[in-house]
Design a protein that fits this description.
Elements lengths: L3 E3 L6 E3 L21 H13 L1 H12 L4 H45 L1
Antiparallel strand pairs: 1-2
Helix pairs in contact: 1-2, 1-3, 2-3
C-alpha cells in the first residue's frame, strides 16, 4: 500500500515517493543528488581544488536520508577542510621563506 498526498498546485493525489506531479508537473520534492562514479569523482576533485565550494556540495549530500549519501558528503567536506588546511600551511611557509629572504637581503644592503 502506497501512501498518497495531494499536489499543492492542482490538488491531485500523488504518491509520496513521486518527485513530480503527474498532472501539472509541479516539483514535489528535490531530486536526490547523483551517486554515479563520474559525478562522485568530480565532487571529490572539486572539493580538493575548489575548497569553499566543496563544503556546500558536501552539505547537499549530508542532508539526504541515505547513509551512503551522508558518507559521500562527509568525505567531500573532509577533503575540503584538508585542502584548506594545506593551503593555509603552504601559504604560511611561503610567507616565511619570502620574509626571511627579504630580511636577509635588507641586512646585506644595510651592511654595505
Amino acid at each position: 500500500m502506497e501512501l498518497t498526498t495531494s499536489c499543492i498546485r492542482c490538488h491531485t493525489n500523488v504518491d509520496q515517493t513521486d518527485f513530480y506531479c503527474r498532472v501539472c508537473g509541479k516539483n514535489l520534492r528535490a531530486k536526490p543528488p547523483s551517486m554515479d562514479p563520474f559525478t562522485l569523482a568530480g565532487l571529490f576533485i572539486g572539493s580538493l581544488l575548489l575548497p569553499p565550494f566543496g563544503i556546500f556540495w558536501g552539505l547537499k549530500y549530508i542532508r539526504e536520508d541515505n547513509q551512503q549519501s551522508k558518507l559521500v558528503g562527509l568525505i567531500a567536506c573532509g577533503l575540503t577542510i584538508l585542502s584548506i588546511i594545506f593551503a593555509v600551511v603552504g601559504t604560511m611557509k611561503i610567507y616565511t621563506i619570502v620574509s626571511n629572504g627579504v630580511s636577509n637581503k635588507l641586512q646585506e644592503y644595510q651592511g654595505l
